[in-house]
Amino acid sequence: MKYPVLGIIGLLLTCHMVAPAQAVKPAKPAATRKKVSAPAEAATTTLPAPAPVPNWLPPTAPVQPAATIVHDLLDTKLDVRFDWAKQWLLGSALLTVRPHFYPQTQLVLDAKGFDVRSVEMVANGKKGKDLKFSYDKKKLTITLDRSYTRTEQYQVRVQYTAKPNELPKGGGSEAITDDKGLYFINPLGTEKGKPRQVWTQGETEGSSCWFPTIDKPNQRMTQEISITVENGLKTLSNGLLISTKRNPDGTRTDVWKQSLPAAPYLTMLAVGTFSVITDTWRGKPIEYYVDPEFQHTAKQVFGNTPEMLEFYSKKLGVEFPWEKYSQVAVHDFVSGAMENTTATTIQQQLVQFSNRELPDIGYESEAVITHELFHQWFGDYVTTESWSNLPLNESFADYSELLWAEYKYGADAAAFVQQTKLNNYLQEAQTKREPLIRYQYLNREDMFDRHSYDKGGRVLHMLRKYVGDEAFFVALNRYLTQNKFASTEIAKLRIAFEETTGEDLMWFFDQWFMQRGHPELRITHSYENGQVALRVQQAQDTLFQPVYRLPVTVTTWSGNQATDHRIIVTKANQTFRLPIAQRPSLVKFDSEGILLAELDEQRTQDELIFQFNHARNYLQKYEAIEGLRSKSGDLVVSAVLRSALNDNFWAVRQVAAAGLRRYKGPEGSAVRKDLERVAINEKDNRVRATAITTLSSFANEDFSSVYSAALKDSSYLVVGAAVDALAKAPTIGTREQINGLQETRNASLLTALANYYGLNGTADHYQWFLRRSQDAPAEVLYTLLENFGVLMQRMPPIEREKGIARLETLARTHPIYYVRLGAYKGLNELSSSMPALKTTLRDIRTKEKDQRLTSIYSLIQ
C-alpha cells in the first residue's frame, strides 16, 4: 500500500527543498552490562544493576499469527447504490465460498456496522432458503443449511445497509489516518469548490465496512461489482467495465469485473465527476481519473506510467498480469495512495497541479506513482499472508522508487533516494526499533512505519548488491512465479534467493528481517609498513541487537589510484589489513554507500577534500560537503563548496548552497555573489530556493533586491523561499508584492504566507487567516493554524473571538489528526496571555481519542 500521509505532506510542502540533512544520530543505547567485583572485605556478593532498557525498545506485545483459513472465499458479486443524504451504502453481496479443509456447518463473515436485512442460500443463481444468522455489528455468523465439505462450493447472498459514519472513531495509523472503509465527500454538495465523491479504502480491514467478506490478506477472490449512480457521475472499480445500463429513474448501472483473484482489502470503488484521460500499454487500457480542471496536466503527472509498466515487466520477467491499470485522484483521501488491484487511489494533492506548479514537483513525485504500481506485483499478484509479513509488500514498493530513479534519471538520483530513505529510518529508530518481520505487535496498523517501508527497501538494496543484479532479479522472478495469486511469508522469499544463488542465506534474512536495530560502526585506520590497519567496531547495544555480518567494500586511494577491497565484518571489534604501496590519500569504508548503518568514520579535513575531488558518486560528495561545512570559513573548504555550486547533479549544488549558511570566512563578498548568482540564474528551482534560504541566514545584510525579484519567479518554491526570507527581514518595498499573493492555491506558498503573516501580520490579516482556514488543504492547515495563533497574540483579546472559536472547533472536530494538532498549537500560543484557554486545552486533551495526539499533547503542556 500506501504512501504514508506525512510523507506526502513533506513532498508537497518542501518539494525537495534542502537535500536531506545528515541523519540525526539516535541516542546511544546503554552499554552492555559489565561485571563488577565485590570488595574483598565484603561479606556478601553485590549483584550488578540490571542493564537500562533502551528508549526504543517497545513493550511486549502479543503474538499475531496469520488468520486461520476456515473457508476459501472464491468470488464476490456486489450490487451497490448510495443514499447520499444519509451516507449509507445499500448493498447485496453474493459470496461463493468453499470449506478450506474441514467440513463446515457455519460461515463467519467480517461485516462492520451493517444493518443486515436477510441472508439466504443461493442455488443455480436462484434464491434458496433463508438462513439463520446472528450478528454483533462486527461478525456475521451464518448457520448453513447442512454440512459442506472441501469439495463443495456454495453461495450465500446477504442483503444489507452499510453505515460507515456510525462506526466507532479512533482507528487508523501514521500511513492510514482512518479505517471506516467507505467515505462520502461533500455528499449534499454544500462545500464550495469540492466535488461530490464516494470512495473506499480497504487496507487493512476496511473492506468489511462496506461489504461482508472474510477480511484477511490470505484470502483471494474474483469479483464483480454493479454500481448504480446518477447519470452525471463516473464510476471506477477493479477490473474491466463489462456493461453499462441507463435506468428509467435517471440512474445508471455500471458493472465492473475482475477475473483474476486478489485479496479482499484490494477491492475498491470510486464515484465522482471525473475526467478520464486514456493511455495504453501493450494493448491494455491505462486510465487517469482526475477532477476536470486538471485534465490537461494529468498526462504530465501520470504520463510515465506506460514506461514504468514496460520497465518492471522486463526487469522482473513477469508481464503486468492484470486486465488494466487505472489511477484515480480523490479528495480527502485517508492515505497517500493505495494499490487496489488494477485501480490505484491517490490523494488529490498529488495531481492538482497547474502548468506553473509542475516544474516544482521534480522526479521525486513519481515515487508515489511507481510505488503503487510496483505493488501490482508485490502485494497484489503475490500478497503477504499476514500483516506481520507486511514488508513483503511495502519494502518492495519502497525499493521500486530507487529502481525507477536509477533507470530513468541515473545513479546519482538513485543514491539520493537511498540517502533520503536511510535518513527516514534512522530518525524513526531514535524512538522505535522493531524487526522487519514482526510476529508480535499491539495493533496491525503499527506495521505501517518507516521500518516496513524505508528500512525494508534498504535491506533489499543490500541483498541486491550482495548477490548481484542478475541473481537478484532472477530470484524475484522465481518468487513471483512460484507464489503467483497466492499469499506468502518471508521464508518463501529466502528460499527463492537460496534456490537461485545456491547459498544458504539464513544469516542475511535472520539479522536483517527477523532482528531489530542496525549496526552503529566506528571506523578508524592507521598506516604502517605498506598496510592500512582498518579497525571496525560495532558499537550498537548487542544485548538487544545482533553483532552483524557485513560484506562491504573499502576503497583506498594511493595518490589518484583507487583500489577496492571486499571484506566481511563478522565481529564486534575487528581489524583488517589492506595492502597499499604508500600512505593512503583516503580510506573510504562502504564506498558504494550500500550499508544500512550509522557510520562514525574518522577523516581529516584534507581527506574530506580529497574525497570530494575524487568522489565516484553523489553520496561521497554529499558526505564530504557535510563533513566540511562546519569549517566553511577556511579558504580551501569554501573553495570546495563554491566549486560544488557548479556540480552536474542538482542535489550536490543544493547541499553546497546550504553548506554556506552563515559563512564568516574571508571570501564573504565572493561567497554572497555566488549565492546571489545561484538564486537568480540556477536552472533548478530547488537549488534557487535553497540559495535564497541561505542568503537569509546572513543577519543584518540586505538582499531585498534578490528577494523582490524572486517574488516574480515562475517557481512557487522560489517565491515561497523569498516570502520566508522576508518574514525574517520584512521590507516596505515588498509588502504589496506579498499581499498580492494572498489568493494562491499553491500549498508551499500558502504555508510561507502563513508564516510571514504570523510573524509580521497586522489586524488587517486576521480575516485572511479566517478565510484561508476554511479552504486551505489539510497539509497547509497544520502550520497555518499555529501561525494564526501567533498573529492573534498581537491583537486585543476582545477581537480574537472568531479566531479562537475556529481554532477550537478544528482542534476538536477536524477528521485529520495533524490538523487538530495544528489548531491545538494555535490555541496554545494564545494561552500565555489568555489563561482561560488552559481549561479549553485541558478539555481538548481529555476528550481526544487518538493516541498519537495525546502523547504529543503531553509534550506541549
TrEMBL record:
Q: What are the boundaries of the signal sequence?
A: 1-23
Cofactor(s) demanded: Zn(2+)
**Annotated GO CC locations:** cytoplasm; extracellular space; membrane
Task: List GO BP terms, alphabetically.
Answer: peptide catabolic process; proteolysis
Q: Which Gene3D superfamilies match?
A: Leucine-rich Repeat Variant, Neutral Protease Domain 2, tricorn interacting facor f3 domain
A Pfam family of this chain: Peptidase_M1
Q: Which reaction does it catalyse?
A: Release of an N-terminal amino acid, Xaa-|-Yaa- from a peptide, amide or arylamide. Xaa is preferably Ala, but may be most amino acids including Pro (slow action). When a terminal hydrophobic residue is followed by a prolyl residue, the two may be released as an intact Xaa-Pro dipeptide
User: Which keywords describe this protein according to UniProt?
Assistant: Aminopeptidase, Hydrolase, Metal-binding, Metalloprotease, Protease, Signal, Zinc
Q: Where is the Aminopeptidase N-like N-terminal domain?
A: 77-266
Under which main EC class is this enzyme filed? hydrolase
Entry superkingdom? Bacteria
Q: EC number(s) per UniProt?
A: 3.4.11.2
Q: Which GO terms describe its molecular function?
A: alanyl aminopeptidase activity; metalloaminopeptidase activity; peptide binding; zinc ion binding
Where's the Peptidase M1 membrane alanine aminopeptidase domain? 304-512
UniProt family annotation: Belongs to the peptidase M1 family.
Q: What is this protein called?
A: Aminopeptidase N
